[in-house]
Amino acid sequence: MEGFEVHDRRFAHYVLGNAPLELLASGFRWVEGPVWMGDADCLLFQDLPRNRTMRWTEEAGVSIYRAPSDYANGQTRDRQGRLIACSHRGRCLYRTELDGRVTRLVAQHAGKRLNAPNDVVVRSDGTIWFTDPLYGIQNDYEGGRQESEQPPALYRFAPESGEIRVMAGDFDGPNGLAFSPDERRLYVAETGDQTGDAPRQFIRVFDVSPDGERLSGGGFFHAVSPGYCDGMRVDEDGNIWSSAADGVHCISPEGQLLGKVLVPHRVSNLAFGGVMKNRLFIAASHSLYAIFLNRRGAHWP
Ligand code: MG
User: Fold this and answer.
1) What residues are paired with 178 via a beta bridge?
2) Quick one: which of 63, 65, 88, 98 has the most CB atoms within 10 Å?
3) In what order do the strands lie in the sheet containing 83-87?
4) Alpha-carbon span 155 to 174, nearest angstrom
5) Residue 170: strand, helix, or coil
6) Looking at the DSSP assignment, which residues form a beta bridge with residue 129?
7) What is the DSSP string of 128-191?
8) Ligand 1: distance of its center to the CA of 203 in Å?
9) What whole-number distance in Å separates Cα of residue 153 and Cα of residue 130?
């Protein structure tokens, strides 16, 4: 099949022979953080180094949603539909309320500033889980160099109580993350200390306690190659769709590579969207792509 690599026959059922990869827009510096806004029938995504959040619609194409974005990166929506974004420059998470006001949600842990929140998901109990590596404060391109005040970590933030808790602190560079459909597993990309010679780069899998209060495990799940997993999403069957240097890789819940959607540029992040949740939006270098799949995203968004 043109445009795909099938490594397992299951994958042949996940893609559609007459649904090729579509280039939606190009000319950005580096796109990130796609999130589908079904009620507004649009995709929001970042042109991160340009300090803008962009909007794409089928009818009108691309326009600016927010500028400046405070160098926002990963995005998601909470259970009330509010947009939550990770800000490199602001070293915080911020939330766009339903009336449009912007609320700074969390910027500190243990009295010290966060590094540069990178990616974020919301559990069904309303808790906000996010990664906080150093990448966004290590250069002037994606927000500006700043001093780190604490080690990289995976956090759980409870917006009702304001409690922030380290769920895993043994990361060199925690990055994209996604819950399994039943939320009993959490996948987190370790993209390593990218200032080092041989960064640790693989997806880790944690078991989540039923009440969502504790993690266990956290071992190796899958190493994406070529490249590494930056952002990922999970489909209705629990497969992980991961960014890679050559496109989007589909990985089974057992950690097996099932197939690839080939993309001409390195992929940073992705999101399911569209009315049927069966359209995968792909942020890849300076371009935004999309492809219809024969699978739906597990979570909304
Ligand atoms: Mg990322």
Assistant:
1) 187
2) 88
3) 72-77, 83-87, 92-96, 102-106
4) 10
5) coil
6) 121, 156
7) EEEEE-SGGGSSTTTT------S--EEEEEETTTTEEEEEE---SSEEEEEE-TTSSEEEEEE-
8) 13
9) 9
How far, in Å, from the CA of 86 to the mean position of ligand 1? Answer: 10
Q: Which residues contact 226 (CB under 8 A, 6 or more apart)?
A: 244, 245, 246
The model's pLDDT over 268-291, given as tens digits with 9 standing for 90+, comes to: 999 999 999 999 999 999 999 999
> How many A from CA of 117 to the centre of ligand 1?
9
The answer to whether the CB of 21 falls within 8 A of the CB of 3 is yes
Q: What is the DSSP letter of 150?
A: S
Check residue 40 and report its DSSP letter. Answer: G
Residue spans of the domains in the chain: they are 4-292
* 221 CA → ligand 1 middle, Å: 18
Q: What is the pLDDT of residue 301?
A: 57
Host H or E run for residue 132: strand 128-132
State in Å: Cα 59 to ligand 1 middle.
28
Task: Work out whether strand 287-292 and strand 102-106 pair parallel, antiparallel, or are unpaired.
Answer: unpaired
**Residue 32 carries which side chain, given as an amino acid letter?**
E
Q: How far is the CA of 294 from the centre of ligand 1 (A)?
A: 26
Give the torsion through C-alpha atoms of 89, 155, 242, 71, to 10 deg: -10
Assess whether pLDDT exceeds 60 at residue 57: yes
- Which of 109, 101, 44 minimizes the C-alpha distance to 73? 44
Tell me the C-alpha distance between 130 and 203, whole Å. Answer: 15
CA of 227 to the centre of ligand 1 (A): 13
Ligand 1 is an ion; its neighbours by CB within 5 Å are: 118-119, 175, 230
18 Cα: distance to centroid of ligand 1 (angstroms) = 31
User: Considering the domain 4-292, what is its CATH architecture?
Assistant: 6 Propeller (2.120)
